[in-house]
Amino acid sequence: MIFVTGDTHGGVDFAKLARFAQSRPGLTKDDYVIICGDFGGVWWDKTLKADLQPYEQLPFTVLFADGNHENFDLLYSMPERVWRGGRVHFVCPTVIHLMRGQVFELEGNKIFTFGGATSVDSAYRTQSFSWWSQEVPSQTEFEEGLKNLSKHGNRVDYIITHSCGQKALSLAPAGMLSRKRGVYPENIMLSRFEEEVSFKRWYFGHYHADCPIGERFRAVYNDVIPLGI
Q: Phi/psi zone of residue 75: left (φ > 0), alpha (ψ -120 to 50 degrees), beta?
């Protein structure tokens, strides 16, 4: 089975995964939970093993798109492979980073991933210590996403991102945007996918909200929901 949830921020919001694991005793490493950005478990090199241990001990495999709160220098130093049709970083055997602009074929589903977002608090952070410029998707990553989608006829089953496009923003409840107002480069990039790609559901984190938006978008944070809901 495949499930989707929102930001975990390393250990800060990890408890929801532990609770979910307890509620689903039949899950195995052949099942997947996808985190929609701000995984946060790859943060300090010297504590990486300890930080990842709670995730490795979960009964399922953890997949994640990156958010804006990741140590991208450390994340991008990890082994890159092609897995299920798309490029990934294997953080460890059962924690896998789904890179930007990729289409994965997982349990009969085509899943497009495009992580990244702008930190609205970057002015209060330190570059290459608590903030990394790679958080904002590049034009190269955007073009790779367009190219990979074209290979699949611009049709996928599900889209996993950290932020969202302008259509989703326009449909979202006003209170959901109170933390991160404005339109940023990634919102504009993601709008192109909204316009050109056929999909069933689009899931995103970033806004720390749990709610359906329109008929096909869903913001996730604390909920852990089956893919397709």
A: alpha
pLDDT of 29 higher than 70:
yes
Distance CA 116, CA 69 (A): 9
How many alpha carbons fall within 13 Å on the CB side of residue 78? 21
CATH number for position 183: 3.60.21
List, edge to edge, every strand of the sheet that includes 109-114.
102-106, 109-114, 158-161, 201-204, 217-219, 211-213
CA distance 122 to 87: 28
Domain that holds residue 33: 2-226
Query: In the structure encoding, which two tokens stand for residue 154, read together?
Result: 């611009």
- Sign of the Cα torsion 119, 125, 128, 129 reads negative
Arithmetic mean of pLDDT, 164-183: 83
pTM for the model stands at 0.97
Residue with tokens 């990394």: 132
Tally the domains of the chain.
1
Determine the Cα–Cα distance for residues 96 and 85; give it in Å rounded to an integer.
14
**∠ at Cα 85 (81, 87), nearest 5°?**
35
Q: How far apart are CA 77 and CA 125, in angstroms?
A: 22
Using CA atoms, how far residue 30 sits from 41, 106, 201, in Å, is 21, 11, 22
In this structure, the number of other CB atoms found within 10 A of the CB of residue 82 comes to: 9
∠ CA 211-203-38, nearest 5°, is: 100
